[in-house]
Amino acid sequence: DVKVTQSSRYLVKRTGEKVFLECVQDMDHENMFWYRQDPGLGLRLIYFSYDVKMKEKGDIPEGYSVSREKKERFSLILESASTNQTSMYLCASSFLGQGTEAFFGQGTRLTVV
Amino acid sequence: AQSVSQHNHHVILSEAASLELGCNYSYGGTVNLFWYVQYPGQHLQLLLKYFSGDPLVKGIKGFEAEFIKSKFSFNLRKPSVQWSDTAEYFCAVSIYNQGGKLIFGQGTELSVKP
Lengths: 113, 114
Known about the structure:
The structure holds two protein chains of two kinds. By secondary structure, chain A is an all-beta fold. Chain A has no helices and eleven strands. In chain A, strand 4 and strand 5 form a beta hairpin. Chain A is globular. In chain B, strands 2, 5, 6, 10, 11 and 12 form a six-stranded mixed sheet that branches. In chain B, strands 3-9-8-7 form a four-stranded antiparallel sheet, with no helix packed on it. At the A-B interface, strand 4, strand 5 and strand 9 of A face strand 6, strand 10 and strand 11 of B.
């Protein structure tokens, strides 16, 4: 079974803190993604990576950065957390190529107070 | 920018009713299309996908979807829904030659009444 594991299910952070969300996959997938999920807005792509140290901005990268030092691990960084970043964050991974299925983690519910 | 639009935000049906959820995308080139489902408290999982060939695609749990290229649509259907189909459904598009980058629609929440 493919496993995409996010380090935390729930996080509460203070405004201005630097926040790290970690994601690990065990299927040797080239692609990894970070989305945020908000009611009525669906899943919006923050960043994705198709190889180690490679990254591309998604639709809403402002306020976020990412790191991919190893193939299996993709980290999302909130440089200075703000209340409008309170959301559900989803990590996903897939093989590089056409028509490949993405596998999702269980999500991290982040609350910024 | 490419986008995916799902027409219905919340659909309420009685058991045994038929279901059709709309999905349109805005990109003129080659695409791969997906429907994902998120059951309450669970992670997203693939329901079905279109890669090439027959535009009528069958997925798990009796779902199917039809790709109509001329209409940029990929609507999801099920002839008879069950209470256990209550979930949120997401349409997604992967653009050819963008490495599998997935763009999602806003989601449709389906509530099935027993």
